[in-house]
Write a structure and sequence with these properties.
Helices cover 38% and strands 22% of the residues. It is α/β, with parallel strands linked by helices. Strands 1, 2, 3, 4, 5, 6 and 7 form a 7-stranded mixed β-sheet that branches. Strands 17, 18, 19, 20, 21 and 22 form a 6-stranded antiparallel β-sheet that branches. The longest helix is centred in the last third of the chain and has 16 residues. Belongs to the phosphohexose mutase family. InterPro entries: A-D-PHexomutase_a/b/a-I, A-D-PHexomutase_a/b/a-I/II/III, A-D-PHexomutase_a/b/a-II, A-D-PHexomutase_a/b/a-III, A-D-PHexomutase_C, A-D-PHexomutase_C_sf, Alpha-D-phosphohexomutase_SF. One of its GO terms (biological process) is carbohydrate metabolic process. This is Phosphomannomutase/phosphoglucomutase.
């Protein structure tokens, strides 16, 4: 029997195909999803992995057998699935394992209006139902099954995004786009096709084996090709998408990566110009610059835990207009509080294209501090190592602690956050300081304590 504890994560389902997740199991997940959401209709999409179409079809069969009408939108990015869920106001399921290697696949689920499904919002119930059916056998099909239909939403998705950002007055720009053989190769030509852009495509061929590099642009080694191509082409900027194209990473005209915190601050300033006095959500490891910029533009910053379910919950609770994370996830009220890297990219293109300077100059006012990026350390005891760090820094003057998410230690000139991984024996360290030398000193002190 499948071990669901291995594949049902905090926010989604993810495992090896077919060892841990196969078509039979996907069918049971589809039935359970229909049962728990009590939906009359759902929408289902999938990425370019070889196993994705079969898994999506199996999930649809399970839902239809429970009397739910299922619409399959086929190849799509995760934010395109969120668009369909929001626009149709029905629950949705996306088959993808994002940037994980080819043998992996998974399911990202949402309720109607792209509302998140996580452990506390239905995923635990779905898992329990699937486990029961695996033991006792699935319930008999209902007397009146649902219907199965196909629908293409790509053009509607593109038109909706373009309606949210004014790009009518931008100057011609040259942009290199690295799709990483993921779903950006499917969505970018349609979304950017009608704009005054010279798009230089990299790795647009849909290939779930990721033959060129891992489709995770947050890892510096995966944007080496993009950085080189931006310089070679004399481009104005570069964009890199992850495997399911819900995250977008930006490279400036010098081939240098632009911090997702700087992008968060830039987009926040633009959103606050449209929605004066609005609330902006940022997780606790985005830069100090984010809440500073929000306040400078008359907005209210709200600090949250790391993770899309926390961001989305806080956005719904506060009516926030925008939210950003260090991981290059960007959330918009006008996009059902869901994350879409493509919409953030359009904001960057609009901001750059409506003024004459280069991107590095534009983002310099939003990138004010020295940051370490996320540093992972394998440890034998996460709790003990964290306690050792806290004890060492507690002896210092003018140091504060909070435990909103892991341990955050702050002083007047620096801060760092230390968070345990939920799935691996890792501690994740993020450090920021007012200058590079201070950041390096605090980073090295913390790492010495963490790694013993």
């Amino acid at each position: 029997m499948a071990d669901l504890a291995q594949i049902v994560k905090a926010y989604d389902v993810r495992g090896l195909y077919p060892d841990q997740l196969d078509d039979r199991l996907a069918e049971l997940f589809g039935a359970a999803f229909a049962e728990i959401t009590e939906a009359e209709a759902i929408v289902i999409g999938h990425d370019m992995r070889a196993s994705s179409p079969g898994l999506a079809s199996a999930f649809a069969r399970g839902a239809v057998a429970r009397g739910t009408h299922a619409t399959i939108i086929g190849l799509c990015s995760t934010d395109q699935l969120y668009y369909a869920s929001g626009n149709m106001n029905v629950p949705g399921a996306m088959f993808t394992a994002s940037h994980n290697p080819a043998r992996y696949n998974g399911i990202k689920m949402c309720r109607a209006g792209a509302a998140p499904v996580g452990q506390d919002t239905g995923l635990a119930q779905i898992r329990a139902l699937v486990e029961r059916w695996l033991t006792e056998g699935a319930p008999p099909a209902v007397t009146r099954p649902g219907t199965l239909t196909q629908r293409d939403t790509l053009n509607d998705y593109a038109a909706y995004l373009l309606s949210l950002v004014d790009l009518s007055a931008i100057r011609p720009l040259k942009v290199v786009v690295d799709a990483g053989n993921g779903m950006g190769g499917h969505t970018v030509p349609t979304v950017l096709g009608g704009l005054p852009l010279d798009v230089v495509p990299m790795y647009f061929e849909l290939d779930g084996t990721f033959p060129n590099h891992e489709a995770n642009p947050l890892d510096p080694k995966n944007i080496v090709d993009l950085r080189a191509r931006v310089l070679a082409e004399g481009a104005d900027l570069g964009l890199a998408f992850d495997g399911d194209a819900d995250r977008c990473f930006v490279v400036d005209e010098r081939g240098e990566g632009v911090s997702p915190s700087a992008i968060t601050a830039l987009v926040a300033a633009r959103e606050l110009a449209e929605h004066p006095g609005g609330t902006i959500i940022h997780n606790l490891i985005t830069s100090w610059s984010v809440p500073e910029v929000v306040k400078e533009h008359g907005g209210t910053p709200v600090r949250t835990r790391v993770g899309h379910s926390f961001i989305k919950q806080e956005m719904a609770a506060t009516g926030a207009v925008f939210g950003g994370e260090h991981s290059a996830h960007y959330y918009f009220r006008e996009f059902w509080n869901a994350d879409t890297g493509m919409l953030a990219a359009l904001h960057v293109l609009s901001a750059l294209g409506t003024q004459p300077g280069p991107l590095s100059e534009l983002v310099s006012s939003y990138d004010r501090y020295a940051g370490s990026g996320e540093i992972n350390s394998t440890v034998d005891d996460q709790t003990a190592r964290t306690a050792a760090v806290r004890a060492a820094f507690a002896a210092r003057e003018n140091v504060t602690f909070d435990e909103l998410d892991g341990l955050t230690v702050a002083s007047t000139d620096w801060w760092f956050n230390l968070r345990p991984s939920n799935t691996e024996p890792l501690l994740r360290l993020n450090v920021e300081a007012r200058d590079e030398a201070t950041m390096a000193r605090i980073r090295d002190e913390a790492l010495t304590l963490i790694r013993g």
